[in-house]
Amino acid sequence: MRSFLTVAAVAGMVATVAIPAFAAADRGDAAQARTLQQVSADDAQSLVVASEGSPATLERGGYSATTPEEIEKAKAKEAAEKAAKAALAARLAASSKARTSSSDSSSSSGSSSSFSSDVPLVSPGSGTVRRPLAHFDNFGRPYAGHKGTDYMVGRGEPIYAVADGTVVASSESGPGWGVYVKIAHNIGGVRVTSLYAHMNWGTRRVSVGDTVSVGQLIGQVGDTGRANGTHLHLEIRINNGYTNAESWLQANAG
């Protein structure tokens, strides 16, 4: 009997504690449910998915994978093309500069680079030695160290070889002589060299190694090199020694 009463008392105590707890739990769940519903109602969000939207189609041929070797080849090709373009630009710039410099030189000397074709190809006379000019105005003033004779005459006057011979020098830029021609002769067994300086630009008619005849046109008068005014600077050397050009011509020219 005592045991029964004890069990009953314990059961009553459990019931007294458990029922309020369950009731509190039910009230807490209900309150939490209401709170979530209220939050959902107050802060409602929606997600709209366009039913007509379509993702972009990826084409297999629209991209490609490149190996490291192919990348290096492409880089090398690009670098070579850039280097070639730079080299071409440099060559064009150098060529343009050279043309400008040549043009400036011609302008400063007051001479033309075009050859006048309306000149006699052969000088007058019939001797073994002939004068290099058909005519001239006067002689230039001699001075110390000057090894030739200056014949003052207008620009473009034809210059002729004084005798048969072989061209040993022909240049557009002689040291002080400007445009000049040098010819070696054998006149009666005597070695003679004639030099014609200060010719006009682009008028030389002979090159090194050419064989020329007495009285043959070799160029035209100008003022290139170290020259004051247009004239022919003529040098005559006999057996490696300089001689007065005019005196030699007076003694030998026919």
TrEMBL record:
Residues 98-126 are annotated as: Disordered. InterPro entries: Cell_wall_metabolism_enzyme, Dup_hybrid_motif, M23ase_b-sheet_dom. Keywords: Signal. The keyword Lipid metabolism does not apply. Residues 98-117 have a biased composition (Low complexity). Residues 1-23 form the signal peptide. Gene3D superfamilies: Glucose Permease (Domain IIA). It comes from the Bacteria. The keyword Signal applies. GO terms for molecular function: metalloendopeptidase activity. Pfam families: Peptidase_M23 (PF01551). Residues 145-244 form the M23ase beta-sheet core domain. PANTHER family: MUREIN HYDROLASE ACTIVATOR ENVC, PEPTIDASE-RELATED. This is Peptidase M23.
